[in-house]
């Protein structure tokens, strides 16, 4: 870059560069237009091959093809842009090849500064190869949870249920939790007072759960037993296997049913309790 | 730099440098003035091409052009300043080219110290290329949330709703949340007492929500069900899809309507409860 | 890569490359098909040798063979894909060998960016070699706990009890806790009021524990003594050795038995207590 | 440094160095005195050009000139000290040039150890160039908030409102919040009891705010609505745009006015509430 | 690796390699069997020399020999496996020597990726050399506490008291706490009410402690004095030196004795106190 | 180091080294004694020049001279020790020069390991050069606050007000807060009950503050206004400018005066309040 | 290492190495025995010179000699073990010299992996040189507090007051607090009720403190004043200078005296207070 700088300083000084300026601008315009056309053709082809035919396959194959199709669009865009930029730079006399292959202070700084970019691409490549998650899955990575919209070469876009788009570099996706592969488990803890008969309460819950109907329920809910005894009461745990990622919906349904069953059977949900000892005090 | 130092020490010693001093100062002044003029012309051109024509395009295209226009102003300023500094330094006999291309202790320190600068520029480049967010979007990165004012090559300026300007280096923008792409979801949790009829309360909320009118509302609010049962009451969740980033406004409107509907129907919002057992105590 | 870029730019310019294009596509298709067939044969062989014969061995040997079998499937997939990609790239004239062996800015960035990939593979190799955990074990690493599904060369999949799949890179598995090797210990703390006779309470617990029957119990539960005296009462600790990873189930059984024994013997679980001094106050 | 060490050890051994000692001390004293004089002249010139003329310009230009003037004083001090130290060292026969340009263990350690120094200078340079903040602005970076006193090449001094001086290296100023660029927003949340008429309360607040006079107020305060409904009451939010960084003063004025308006209209600020159920208990 | 890849690609192409395949498999099988036999002999010898003779020595020497014996088993396993893998690889024509000694992108990545492996081995070596802890000691490192089961060259296995096995890489064992070297100190804090006579309470505790008998007690417990005065009472601290790592057992014994002594002497453990002022209020 | 090791192993083998041993020990003793004498003379000179004359200058100059004097003692000690160790090592035939200038595995490890040492020295140098703080100032860095005792080349000693000495490496002193440069501000927040007349309370505080006399007070305390309205009362803020680092003393004086003024005027400091609703409950 | 591996593989193949095996084992045994003897002699000499004569010197000198003596034992052990291992390895034909001086992948990994080892030694060296703390001092570094037992070249052993031994690598001892250099300050905060006369309470405390006798007390305790006014009462602070590290003992003595003085003078320690407003409520 320094060599180029020296020569361009020289060029600026004697003003000889201005003659070839017009032609170079014309050629660069052609390169940019051609690259946009090439990209449009490539994206159309990818859509036809990967995305539109996806419906012909099983759900698992289609999921895979959608993911790879969106990635390919992303990758071809980078490649076409990269080639176009290289061509444009070579038009104005800059050849980045030797610079990138050489070393020195600038190279050291670029090498260090670009390492997270390289890590993003490597990790993105393995996310696809290992099929860790696909477009449409609900995942959580770090503090971001939502539905995967796009897996790009460098970043993944996650759409949260409240509408925000989280854009996460792939290199930051170290540990990822996928909620869409297996059935989920709705876990509901309910407290009953010490004065209640625990066996009776568990029986009522079991009976209520047997009658629970919900589209997302895979197995009948199961009463696990006395999870905890603390100052205000006895906590009973209920679990219910349901279709992937539907556990909040199922838990709300279980909550509503239990509230009504407890109302019918006169079982009280315990308030916090306290024993108070009143003492009289001589006025201060 | 050391070579230069040695020679300048030599120069200072025999005082020969002072003759050429006046001419060099004059030439440097000319360089600085010329660079300011060049920068003014470039910025005017960018404004005319990118910013003023923005109104002729669709909202999405205009958004993009505004962002790129502000970036181009930023980039041209860096390039012009960089060339001017190089010319000034070459006037006083310092050629930074070999230094930057060489290595050694100074080079090592600069290479390490400049890596975050390089990372800033690379990340800034990809923020624009991948269209992660544009000027005018409401985003959150780390603990900083606000409206994007400028996306520069090295830093992004975010204007918080209380008036502060957050200046964040692009290299620190690892994970970014964009609130302006999709519709938002206002989530309101309301508690009713155990003694209340839950079905009736949900019916009242549903009826109230049906009559809610708000400009930012996209779909009619929806009552999800019993979200939680805890010591003080039953929590019912209401959600409402609204235009991007308007969820606090919509949530305030829902709060007000529900408060009035509950007042009309005599549904109480539960206070914390406690059961107290009084015991007498022998005086200590 | 730069050399290739230069030549491909040259190629794109004079359009000579298009002749050989058709043949190269054909050969690449053959390579890809052949690699899928080879992978299918290898996976079948591994399944036959490692997984299907597992039943002939003792539990420990079978566990080991299942783990190594799943790993071998994983490793052979990487090797076959790697060779296929190299062959495809050599078809289109790119030889990555010299690039990877050389150095420079790109090499520096790749070397830094790939270090976590290398660390993943090294750590994965030692997890298998040292038999830290096997497929089917319940482990916890960081905040992720669950049953190991697959130990791959680069990542380990952990299935949580609520159904989520955690995908953790092996390099992040620094410190791992294995719950499936030894018997577990269920620890139950129960509070009794100060007014109660502590000796009598401990006797009742001991008697109840002697009669406790549970399939997962390895030894009779043991009453350790007075663990803590705090403002609301005296805490007594009970421990019970049980089969690996069954301690929540056993703790629930102990909770239920103790609740019923306390009900029978009139021992109260203490509520929080407070002494209140009432003072009259002149009205403000 | 080792070469020098070897020769100086040799010198110390044969005591030949002591002859030239007196002359060297004399020359070094002259260098030190001359550098202090040069620095004094440079600082006087900077003050005359940059700081004293600042009053002739607009506020924004003056702000910029003050910042750059203080920085120039800082930079010229470093340069003069650096040249003086180099001259002194060359007097006693040490030439640091080759050492700094060379490599080896010492060089490696220095290169690594000095990277944060280089990062400080680079970041400081960009703070000035990008006009992120200027002397006199109120900024926050990390946990340090206050008025900027000096922006140096390596450190920035921030004066907190309670009188402490925070000295922060520029390299630690990653993300900075500037409070002095735009108008601030005073946000006041006030609670009213559930029994109150919310519409009436909001009307009273609106009326009170209309009559609020304050020098720092830019726009009339605005009542946003019901921000929150919780166990003790209804929270109403009021916002008021005011001059930069005056929001605590304006919020205090709003607090005082509202307290008096509520007193006049008999609206109570709600205390925490609790429902207590008293049960008798058989004595333990 | 690339050279090998190129040649193996060539080999795969012309299918000449398949002739020598059978012989190579045979030789590799012999190598693997021989290495298992060698390992079996080495482990038997180590057991005989180090572990079985341990009983002839003093406790400290035996402890050391057990630790070193288990480590030697671990180290010989690594060496034998390493040699076997090298021999197998040389059978199939891969010589890793030049690769590991060379450099380049792959070497850089491996060098960085393997640094934590090297750190593990170095730290493990010093743990043994400095006798920081031995097999059977109770230690805590980070959040993991338990009895040391094996100190390997790369990892240490710690068995927690609830049955989990923590596997910690030696390089993560930066700061380690050893509970098994010195006598432990059981610390028990007990509160008495303000109304109690502090001197009398301390006397009762002292008397009770004098009569305390416990196998793990090394010295008679000691009453330190008034540790804290807070809102609910006066806290008195008791300490008791006991055999290493038995302080929870001794603390439970002290708790039980004090509870009974307080019951006998009518000293009350203070409940939290609060002064309440009741005011009448005009109905809202 | 290896070369030396090889030769010394050879030497140990043929026992020839023992002849020259006595003489070397004698010479080393002389070197050590001479270095102690040289250090004593240097320290005496520094004390005479820098520390004893300090009283002749203004406070600011004296402060600077004390700091630099203590640093010079520290630096000369390092230099004399360094030369002595080099001479001793050269006596026993070890020349560290080539080792330190060379590279290799040992050099790499030393270079990395020594980087924090280099950073300490560089930062320490700038602390003095930039006059960030001086001996006797009260500073806070990280969690350590106290009076600076010594600023050394590598570490700074801070004496906390409770008597501990904190020894902090200069490289850890990234962000430092100096309490001794400017006047401090004592900030006192006091609550009054809602029933009180806020204007009257503020008037009483203002009157009391006008009469407050304290040696450390620089300006008359100022009543800022209503800082906060919360559940228990109205918070009024008072500030008072006082001499550097005396704000805890002044705040205690203000506390005492206000307590007495409130007692005289019958203004109550509000206790927490709560509204309780008693409900009867059917016995469970 | 690879060269050695290749040759030893060759050796293992043709079984020629077994002839020289017996002699090598014999020689290695002699080396090991000789090194143990040499170490025993060196340790005895160090003990005689450094530790046993310590009693002849002042406390400060003796403290230093004990520390250095223990370090010397540690260092000589490392040197003797290092030479012995080198001799043993040279017996079996491995020369580590060239390996350590060379570079490559293995060297890179070792260099990175060993950097914390080097940092430990450098920091340990400066802890001794700067006399930061000595054997017998009470220090705190990070979360570990206790009495220093040994300062080794690589690790420092700290004995906590409850009996655990903390082993901390010197490189982790960044910031260290030494409690044994200066007198400590016992700080006791005591609350009195608002109704109490603050002046009288302070007078009683002052009088009580005047009569306090304690061996560890250096100066008479001092009553600082009203530290805090909060909801429950007025906090008065008392400080007392005492001998190093005896502040918990002195604080306990002050607590006991004040409790008794308050009992005698009828000053009450305030319980938390609350104002309750009782409202009747229509039954829900």
From TrEMBL, chains A, B, C, D, E, F, G:
Pfam families: MS_channel_1st (PF21088), MS_channel_2nd (PF00924), MS_channel_3rd (PF21082). It comes from the Bacteria. GO terms for cellular component: plasma membrane. It is a multi-pass membrane protein. One of its GO terms (molecular function) is mechanosensitive monoatomic ion channel activity. May play a role in resistance to osmotic downshock. This is Mechanosensitive ion channel family protein. It comes from Paenibacillus soyae.
């Amino acid at each position: 870059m320094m060599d180029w700088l020296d020569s361009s300083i020289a060029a600026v000084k004697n003003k000889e560069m201005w003659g070839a300026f017009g032609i170079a601008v014309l050629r660069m315009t052609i390169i940019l237009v051609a690259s946009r056309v090439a990209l449009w053709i490539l994206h159309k082809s990818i859509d036809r091959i990967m995305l539109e035919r996806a419906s012909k396959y099983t759900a698992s194959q289609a999921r895979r093809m959608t993911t790879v199709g969106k990635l390919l669009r992303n990758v071809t865009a980078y490649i076409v842009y990269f080639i176009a930029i290289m061509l444009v730079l070579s038009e104005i006399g800059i050849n980045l090849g030797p610079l990138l292959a050489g070393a020195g202070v600038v190279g050291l700084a670029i090498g260090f500064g670009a390492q997270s970019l390289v890590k993003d691409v490597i990790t993105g490549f393995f996310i696809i190869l290992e099929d860790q998650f696909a477009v449409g899955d609900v995942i959580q990575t770090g503090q971001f949870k939502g539905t995967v919209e796009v897996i790009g070469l460098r970043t993944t876009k996650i759409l949260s249920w409240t509408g925000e788009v989280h854009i996460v570099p792939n290199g930051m996706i170290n540990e990822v939790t996928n909620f869409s592969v297996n059935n989920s488990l709705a876990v509901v803890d309910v407290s009953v007072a010490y004065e209640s008969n625990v066996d009776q309460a568990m029986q009522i819950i079991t009976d209520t759960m047997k009658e629970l109907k919900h589209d997302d329920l895979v197995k009948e809910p199961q009463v696990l037993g006395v999870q905890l005894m603390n100052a205000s009461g006895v906590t009973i745990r209920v679990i219910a296997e349901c279709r992937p990622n539907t556990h909040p919906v199922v838990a709300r349904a279980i909550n509503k049913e239990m509230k009504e069953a407890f109302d019918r059977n006169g079982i009280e949900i315990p308030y916090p309790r306290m024993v108070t000892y009143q003492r009289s005090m001589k006025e201060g």
